[in-house]
Specification:
heterodimer, A: 622 residues, alpha/beta, Glutaredoxin, Rossmann fold, Ubiquitin-like (UB roll), 4 domains, five-stranded mixed β-sheet, 26 helices, B: 240 residues, four-stranded mixed β-sheet, 7 helices, elongated
Chain lengths: 622, 240
């Protein structure tokens, strides 16, 4: 099969691939400018490359330099993918000083050398052999190296580059490595390939084709039936069957209805949705448009969290372009509007999100009625997560049966995970449902590097589902990733954040971290969550201060169950999960953190205990 | 309720909330424009507040009052929304902001030790985000954390309370920015500092020095910024 990408090669029938003409023929450098690589200086890097091209030899003119979405291996960013003879190939720019963003440290001569090499290299190996150090700013050029040419980029005339002393590394990434080879891009099919700011590139790859097909050839019922048959389930965490949700909204009494895309990806350690928004916004818009068609909605909203400025910018631009092309907006039967959150995690909860869209405090309300019956301004409202909607165009294009053939019996299709934490290779992976955690974390992610000075190393646990999920201990890593298996272990699929925990982390500490998060983010509406999470955090504080007695673990567990059972919304109901799962799988650590004996026993043994042996009463902060 | 017509000849008793915005003027035409941009729709409130904060750096009381009047909403509703969301600030921002990411990826890589160091250097406790709706300002108490066997700072721990740094620094948490691949990280005045070497205290101190963070609590001009940090793109919506 022809290699399609520097990335996860889409495992598609060759026919399909052959029909798809390359977006930009010839040689190109695709620079990842998503948030991860941007943090590594991708912005200044692409700027430097473009400037270098402008003044370089005409030989470099044939090279296309473009900005693309996530190239997956975030830990090595900034990443550059190269297309050319023998390509594609993927390269990582690094700096010898870990504190310096490599992309910002590149000198003009180095950028020029890179552009020339990319424009002329007969194959990836030649490009990989590029020695950026030879072109280091203010460094003497080694004997015999190519002359800078008649119009040098101005090493001498440029102001002395402050990062002049920083060495750069240039490494080729092995695309046959399991990290890339085991990926099966479906939602992320075009992410990393197209310029997210160009609707032409999206259109060239067939985006909006299914939206057009819906309006010309398909009935809403047929679309819903397809989504039904595909077995797609909500990717936001709860895993509710998408087809069922669509039916519920569509079958409400006649009247206006709305569609909403939930892009309030608040779980710490989760950045899947951000990558879709930043890498392929038009696919999401198409998915949302198809959803609107299927349920009969004429207007919709995209609710994006404010912490994703780049995603907001790209989505705004994508929306504008789609309007200009007449694909969305007036005359197409669908008006979409972007709403920006303001930093409230609870707004990821659907009823709170609806409140926020209406300009209110983002506080949830009891369900039923579900938003599908009564949502925005009382009208039936369909709310779907980014990844759910981004999967829809693929289902329509390839067929429900094709989608349903991927994954497990109950969890169909692929799932995008963001791999982060103590793992060696962090980044974005899209794998079929049912892939084992071990495959993702160890085979693809490379496990946890041994810390200097610590004998162990290796994975201790994997945290899935963020503050509403739990941790899965290393000995259960063979668990397949699907909704039911993770739930059975007391964790949750959540939205797809996977934070790998190394041996150095104490699990009670991690449990307290998540509980603190829930304390901060509780909206305060219902008592169990508002006060219960505070009490839980205080119990954990006592434990970590060495003041708790073993009996208090039962108290902790009881309170967890109470908060879980009685809270109003998903935030409170799931807030105890990290504690419960840590207690379940790592109880020994909690016991070890307790005091050895009760104050009473200590008192009996030694009538006048010295100093602060008696801690504060339970419930008081230590 | 009056529309803040302070310009009339009548001596108007000074009402704190009806005073003009940060510029000290009467009804602020910029705010009227922001409200008009939302077609006077109450559901545009959050967007108005975002833009207002982008202009002023925070949401002044007088500005909130004007927004309420022009959107036809009770002030309680506007204030309720402004105080609910973490990203809205109701106080003028400090000169320098040091925001620590406490997302799970950063935490797993030792962000709590980083917080302890920053608290000591700045003499500040980590404040909960502005507008935090919940209960007492518990602080994070992370200085007490004993992760990885690190001893709690003990007597060296900074004083409690809303101390102000004389050099105009503030220390606050920031929710996960999704740059988890480069964890652990800080945001200093809108620029990211990446992959902080928490495991190596000496290297960490050196990095913090280079970032211009004062070494001890006290008035001190920030030093030269580290080159190459990813700049304005990261400035969150609603910040300058």
């Amino acid at each position: 099969m022809a290699t399609v990408g520097a990335l996860p090669r889409p495992r598609e029938p060759a026919g399909e691939l052959a029909q798809r003409s390359p977006v930009t023929p010839g040689r190109q450098l695709r620079c990842c400018t998503a948030s991860g690589c941007r943090a590594g200086g991708a912005g200044p890097l692409i700027e430097a490359l473009r400037q270098a091209q402008a003044v370089a030899d005409p030989a470099a003119n044939g090279l296309v330099i473009k900005s693309v979405g996530c190239l997956r291996l975030c830990s090595r960013g900034p990443l550059l993918a190269w297309d050319g003879p023998g390509g594609p190939a993927l390269f990582a720019l690094g700096s010898t000083d870990p504190g310096t963003a490599p992309g910002a440290a590149i000198g003009p001569e180095q950028a020029r050398a890179l552009v020339l090499a990319a424009a002329t290299a007969p194959g990836p190996d030649t490009l990989a052999a590029l020695d950026l150090e030879a072109w280091r700013p203010q460094a003497l050029l080694p004997e015999g190296s190519p002359s800078p040419g008649p119009s040098p980029v101005g090493v001498a005339s440029a102001p002395p580059p402050s990062p002049g002393g920083i060495g750069l590394t240039w490494d080729q990434m092995d695309l046959d490595h399991p990290f890339f080879a085991l990926q099966q891009p479906l939602v992320l099919l075009h992410c990393g390939w197209i310029d997210p700011d160009s609707i032409e590139e999206a259109l060239a790859l067939g985006t909006y084709g299914q939206w057009r097909r819906c309006r010309s050839d398909l009935s809403p019922e047929a679309v819903r039936a397809m989504v039904h048959r595909s077995g797609l389930r909500g990717r936001g965490g709860a895993g509710y069957p998408t087809g069922l949700k669509w039916d519920t909204v569509a079958l409400q009494p006649p009247g206006p209805r709305f569609v909403v895309c939930n892009a309030d990806e608040g779980d710490p350690g989760a950045f899947m949705d951000r990558s879709v928004l930043e890498g392929d916004p038009h696919r999401l818009l198409e998915g949302l448009a198809i959803a609107a068609f299927a349920v009969g909605a004429e207007s919709g909203f995209l609710y994006v969290r404010a912490e994703y400025p780049l995603a907001i910018e790209r989505l705004r631009r994508a929306l504008k372009q789609a309007h200009q092309k007449g694909i969305l907006g007036p005359g197409t039967g669908l008006e979409l509007e972007l709403r920006v959150g303001a930093g409230a995690y609870v707004c990821g909860e659907e009823t709170a999100l609806l409140q926020s869209i209406q300009g209110q405090r983002g506080q949830p309300r009891p369900r039923p009625p579900y938003p599908a019956q009564s949502g925005l301004w009382g009208a039936p409202t369909l709310i779907n997560n980014v990844e759910t909607l981004a999967a829809v165009p693929a289902i329509l294009r390839r067929g429900a049966e094709w989608f349903a053939a991927i994954g497990t019996d109950t969890s169909k299709g692929t799932k995008v995970f963001s791999l982060s934490g103590a793992v060696r290779r962090t980044g974005l992976v899209e794998v079929p449902m049912g892939t084992s955690l071990r495959t993702v974390v160890e085979t693809m992610g490379g496990g946890v590097p041994a810390a200097p000075g610590s004998p162990g190393g290796g994975v201790k646990a994997v945290q899935t589902g963020g503050p509403s999920g739990g941790c899965i201990p290393a000995h259960l890593l063979d668990t397949p990733v699907d909704y039911e298996s993770l739930q059975a272990l007391g964790s949750a699929m959540g939205s797809g954040g996977m934070v790998v925990v190394g041996e150095a982390m104490a699990m009670p500490e991690l449990a307290r971290h998540f509980m603190h998060f829930s304390v901060e983010e509780s909206c305060g509406k219902c008592l169990p969550c508002r006060a219960g999470t505070v009490q839980l955090e205080q119990l954990l504080d006592r434990l970590l201060a060495g003041l708790a007695e073993p009996g208090e673990l039962d108290q902790l567990e009881q309170l967890c169950r109470m908060v879980k059972a009685t809270s109003l919304c998903g935030l409170g109901q799931a807030a105890p999960n990290p504690v419960l799962s840590a207690l379940r799988h790592f109880r020994a650590e909690f016991l070890a953190a307790c005091r050895a004996e009760s104050p009473r026993a200590a008192f009996a043994r030694e009538p006048f205990p010295a100093g602060p042996a008696l801690g504060p009463l339970p419930g008081g902060r230590p | 309720m009056g529309r803040g017509e302070m310009a009339s000849g009548e001596p108007v008793p000074p009402r704190p909330l009806a005073q003009a915005g940060p510029g000290g003027r009467g009804a602020d035409s910029r705010i009227s424009q922001l409200v008009a941009d939302q077609q006077l729709r109450p559901e545009g409130l959050i967007e108005v507040l975002h833009r207002l904060q982008a202009l002023d750096g925070y949401l002044a009381k007088a500005s909130l009052r004007q927004v309420a009047e022009e959107l036809g909403l009770p002030l309680s509703r506007v204030y309720g929304v402004a105080s609910f969301y973490h990203l809205f600030r109701l106080e003028p921002p400090q000169g320098h902001r040091c925001a620590v990411c406490l997302g799970s990826a950063c935490f797993v890589l030792g962000a709590s030790r980083l917080v302890a160091r920053l608290e000591q250097r700045l003499g500040l406790r980590l404040e909960p985000p502005a507008g935090s709706a919940n209960g007492p300002p518990v602080g994070l108490g992370l200085a007490r954390a004993s992760q990885g066997g690190q001893p709690a700072p003990g007597p060296g721990a900074p004083p409690l309370g809303p101390a102000r740094h004389p050099g105009g620094w503030s220390l606050e948490p920031v929710s996960c920015l999704g740059a988890c691949g480069q964890a652990p990280l800080l945001v200093l005045d809108g620029a990211l500092a990446l992959r902080l070497p928490i495991a190596d205290p000496a290297a960490l101190e050196a990095r913090l020095d280079r970032l211009g963070l004062p070494r001890s609590p006290g008035p001190q001009a920030p030093g030269a910024k580290e080159p190459g940090a990813w700049g304005p793109e990261l400035v969150l919506a609603g910040e300058r």
